[in-house]
């Protein structure tokens, strides 16, 4: 297998691939993810990144950043210090469709007690999407967990609303991608740096 073909094959698996021309940057379907980012005076490493598919369409690329590499969901949810999820849109999408995907992921992976406990934060998070008419290809959404502050959401570098203070709320967001019923099982594996066998057949 030639090198270019091999690179494409690895990229399809959603594995971390660093090109010699862009050392320290991971390219996922054209979306760039830095290998290291700085959040709340802490260097975070790219734990894994992959693509959210809907049917055969690429919707967005997402990367999970943690202080230390983790390969299981319990380890990620129990991780201390700052966290980041970066989402790069790979196609135009209405706020309704994007928000529905997020809220469905929360509903399917959050138990009743947590839904009651974080009702006000979930409602406010849902309203956040209504403030953005449409997400465009190339738009970047960042969800940062900052200890002592909460979950802070940015769109193209602009802060969106006030922080969501509870770590439980941040865990609920992470379970959108990492829960028992993730929005995309392949993306879950990629964010946990596991091979995604299904990509071999795409």
From TrEMBL:
Keywords, in A-Z order: Isomerase, Signal
The organism's place on the tree of life at top rank: Bacteria
Residues in Chalcone isomerase domain copies: 26-192
Signal peptide start and end residues: 1-23
Entry keyword annotation includes Plastid: no
GO MF terms held by the record: isomerase activity
Family matches, as Pfam families: Chalcone_3
PANTHER family linked to this entry: FATTY-ACID-BINDING PROTEIN 3, CHLOROPLASTIC
Protein name: Chalcone isomerase family protein
Biological source species: Undibacterium rivi
Biological classification of the source: Bacteria, Pseudomonadati, Pseudomonadota, Betaproteobacteria, Burkholderiales
């Amino acid at each position: 297998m030639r090198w270019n073909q091999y690179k494409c094959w690895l990229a399809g698996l959603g594995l971390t691939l660093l090109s010699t021309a862009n050392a320290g940057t991971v390219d996922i379907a054209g979306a760039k993810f830095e290998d290291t980012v700085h959040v709340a005076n802490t260097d975070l490493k790219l734990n894994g990144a992959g693509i959210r598919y809907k049917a055969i369409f690429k919707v967005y690329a997402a990367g999970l950043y943690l202080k230390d590499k983790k390969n299981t969901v319990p380890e990620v949810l129990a991780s201390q210090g700052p966290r980041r999820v970066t989402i790069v849109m790979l196609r135009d999408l209405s706020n309704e469709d994007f928000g529905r995907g997020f809220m469905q992921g929360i509903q399917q992976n959050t138990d009743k007690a947590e839904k009651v406990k974080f009702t006000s934060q979930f409602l406010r998070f849902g309203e956040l999407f209504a403030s953005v008419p449409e997400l465009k290809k190339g738009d970047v959404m960042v969800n940062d967990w900052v200890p002592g502050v909460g979950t802070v959401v940015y769109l193209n570098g602009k802060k969106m609303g006030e922080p969501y203070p509870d770590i439980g709320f941040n865990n609920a967001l992470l379970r959108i991608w990492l829960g028992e019923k993730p929005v995309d099982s392949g993306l879950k594996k990629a964010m946990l740096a596991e091979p995604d066998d299904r990509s071999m057949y795409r």
